[in-house]
Design goal:
mainly beta; two-stranded antiparallel sheet
Length: about 120
């Protein structure tokens, strides 16, 4: 695995933990570009507790809501996108970039109050 970190930032005050926080997307950084969310509140992920190794993720990708599932093994994460609303987001939306980053998630780690997700190479 490899790739670059995608920080999803600013959990609520109850503290660090993948589950139960509304994670907001800040940016995706690759060796060739940085894509910065124009409005972090429009790009969020809320992870539910895993049962039998699998949990659900409620994703807000600008004008669409996406249901997804995830598995975590130590620091390895796999997110599988599921059903989505099909609204056409306005010009300038980063919904597809945000979803592509989540779908290519490989490794997760925390630094301070931030969640970082490394993407698969």
């Amino acid at each position: 695995t490899g790739g670059e970190a995608v920080p999803i930032v600013d959990p609520p005050p109850q503290g660090i933990g993948l589950v139960g926080n509304t994670w907001q997307w800040l940016a995706t950084v690759t060796p060739v570009e940085e894509i910065t969310a124009n409005d972090q509140s429009r790009y969020t992920a809320i992870f539910s507790a895993a049962v039998d190794g699998q949990g659900s993720v409620d994703i807000k990708a600008d004008c669409n809501n996406v249901s997804a599932t995830y598995t975590v093994d130590d620091n390895e994460i796999n997110i599988t996108l599921g059903p989505s609303t099909l609204a056409a987001c306005p010009a300038g939306s980063l919904d597809q970039q945000f979803l592509a980053g989540l779908e290519n998630a490989a490794i997760l780690f925390f630094e301070g109050n931030n969640l970082f997700i490394n993407l698969a190479a």
